[in-house]
Amino acid sequence: MRLHIKTTPNSNIVSFDYQKKMVGRIHSWLGNNEEHGKLSLYSFSWLHKGHITSGGFDFPRGSQWFMSFYDDKLLKAVMAAVLKDPLMFDGLVVTDLNIEPVPDLSNRDLFYLGSPILIKRYEVGNPVTKYYTYEDLTADDLMKETLLHKMEAAGLIPDESVDIRFDREYANKKIKYASYRGICNTSNMCPVYIFAKPETKEFAWNVGIGNSTGIGFGAIY
């Protein structure tokens, strides 16, 4: 399921690298649970409805974002925690929560991004992380590989028929550089096609696409 969140306007400028604040707040809402340190079976979007200003982002009419969970119990736990403590950061306070059940995705193949897709791999003997973008066809296979791994971690039978690929005809696609805790990540702002069984697309809708969905990459809608 998906939790849609609206907030008040900010009181301080929200820094460009606010992701670490988002992650910290989400972890505090999650509280002590067995998901910490495990492969993330949830995803969340970046803050929307703002604009760039000097030194960061401004949300004069408040922000909107969403979180999605494979495990509905986690969504309910986060919702209860937010209601008790709605303060986020930089003056953003949650004012509205709405639950969206997983929609019927059987006739949908194209998905848009709530946050950029990150695809990375570590090579043995190479200390440098290798990032993949839509310019590399290998990226498609790696997105599939990661989703199948998450299905297995969730105790599901991996859908080997799944085919994930970037919509490389999308006119506004771009490579996005996003800093997280001092590391510059090369990510992708480009919609994706997911050809798979309906239940596999539902799983992807919740857990996201690519790596590091637990720190704000790969949320789709």
Automatic annotation (TrEMBL):
Residues 107-220 form the CRISPR associated protein Cas6 C-terminal domain. Keywords: Antiviral defense. One of its GO terms (molecular function) is hydrolase activity, acting on ester bonds. GO terms for biological process: defense response to virus. InterPro entries: Cas_Cas6_C, CRISPR-assoc_prot_Cas6, CRISPR-assoc_prot_Cas6_N_sf. Pfam families: Cas_Cas6_C. Gene3D superfamilies: 3.30.70.1890, 3.30.70.1900. It comes from the Bacteria. This is CRISPR-associated endoribonuclease Cas6. It comes from Candidatus Enterocola intestinipullorum.
